[in-house]
Amino acid sequence: MIKIKKYTTLLLLLFSVSHAFAQSKITKDETLVTLKEGKIKGAILSSSVVAFKGIPYAEAPIGELRWRSPVPKKNWNGIKNAVAFGSRSPQRNSYDDMVFRSDEESEDCLYLNIWKPRVADGKSLPVVVYFHGGGFSSGDGSEPRYDGESMASKGVIFITINYRLSVFGFLAHTSLSKESKRGSSGNYGLQDQNEALRWVKRNISAFGGNSDQITIAGESAGSMSVSAQMCSPLSKGLFQGAIGQSGSVLGFEPPVSLANAEKIGAEFAKACGANSIDELRKIPTKELLKRSKDYWFPLTIDGYFFKEQPLITYSYGRQMDVPLLAGWNSAERSRNTILSNQKPTVENYKAGVEKLFMSKSKEILSLYPATADEQVAQLATDLSSDRFISYSTWKWIDVHSKTNGYPVYRYLFSRKRPAFIGQGSHNADVMGAVHASDIEYALGNLNLNKSYNWESEDFETSKVFQSYLVNFIKSGNPNGDGLPRWFGLQSSIPKVMIIDNDSKSIPEKNGKRYMQLDGILNP
């Protein structure tokens, strides 16, 4: 009897210990994460996703840190709340399709946001860091179209970041170059992105992420940023894959020399009435932004982030050797860029081409020939799209596919958005998928954009596009069960994936045109 009691007591003890252990696992606070710098607390969004917003990845670039390379965030005591988006970089004008969920603009803008699956089954999760678009002059990681909940629900950790824009992110000046240990200035926004990648590399394991399975991605200026990070010596080893949506730094307007960028900076400082960088640093944020409205601050061959022109880096295979998935939309730019809002006639088309391309207009017209008025709308759309961003994306894909050892996957997104709510029918003047319209489809966020009458075909297109991206993030290959087969460009017959409600891989059709255009632009 005594033995039975002992065994019963032992069993009860074992049960209580195991139950307590199980309970401790169940009640573990998934929203509390310990970083290298300190603790943060996020919020559960759904049964499958938890989010951490407004995490500082670098010191605020204000005061003496304005126009200096980002400084890693110092350690903090206590627990930082990470439930609201951090401030976005100051910006003069945002595009009509931009919706911000951050509360304010501030030079204190170096924050990132993380969405992660709640259950990881003990496995390290693949990670994607997404750079927002906006021409390096506007945009924010809080925009609903970049929301990461849908991507996280598919088993990846999704991250958006803010970085310095416009005059705050890209001003170069001789005095700034002199005070720098590296003798360079400019490209601070790109350096911010790089610092964010270093933060992710350091901290992502605390969220269950795999620091050796990081993909970078972005659209427009974000895609240009991806191509830039791939060829910067600062980025070696920080990521293992890349996704580009419409844009690269290998286009019509490549980065300028440091001397030219410093000249722009000197002219700007003079216009501001500043006799020194110290005086320029003392100008309030809003005033500085207002005074910069007539200036464009370009990417710069600064000798630090960029050692040489990106085209040279890619041509000699000195960029990061990573798999790439990239492409563009079927109507990136309106035909009116060529036609200047004139009727689509052959005469107006030729006049527009001559005005834009001047001495090269004859070669351009032979490449994009219009012999009848009914051809003009499509040709003008193709040419304006190529001039804007399609060619630069093609060039990046083409040269990387020839100088790296991993597959390169190219797409053409051609799903035309439905009509605006209340509009009734599609805009007949729009010739296809316009610039930036692919973002909600790719990231599974159609439901967050309330402006359009989304149709079942739109959701099907989104499902396919997002599945390709998720597969690529997880394995470096977009293919998967139930998806049309996507062939890499290194195959014997180069093919392009047409992404629409009837997605399919077809042989390359415009490669010859782009090669000829390349010869005109780079004789």
Automatic annotation (TrEMBL):
Name the UniProt record assigns to this protein: Carboxylic ester hydrolase
Keyword annotations of the record: Hydrolase, Signal
UniProt family annotation: Belongs to the type-B carboxylesterase/lipase family.
EC number(s) recorded for this UniProt protein: 3.1.1.-
InterPro entries the record matches: AB_hydrolase_fold (IPR029058), AChE-related_enzymes (IPR050654), CarbesteraseB (IPR002018), Carboxylesterase_B_AS (IPR019826), Carboxylesterase_B_CS (IPR019819)
Domain Carboxylesterase type B: 30-508
Top-rank EC class of the record's enzyme: hydrolase
Signal peptide: 1-22
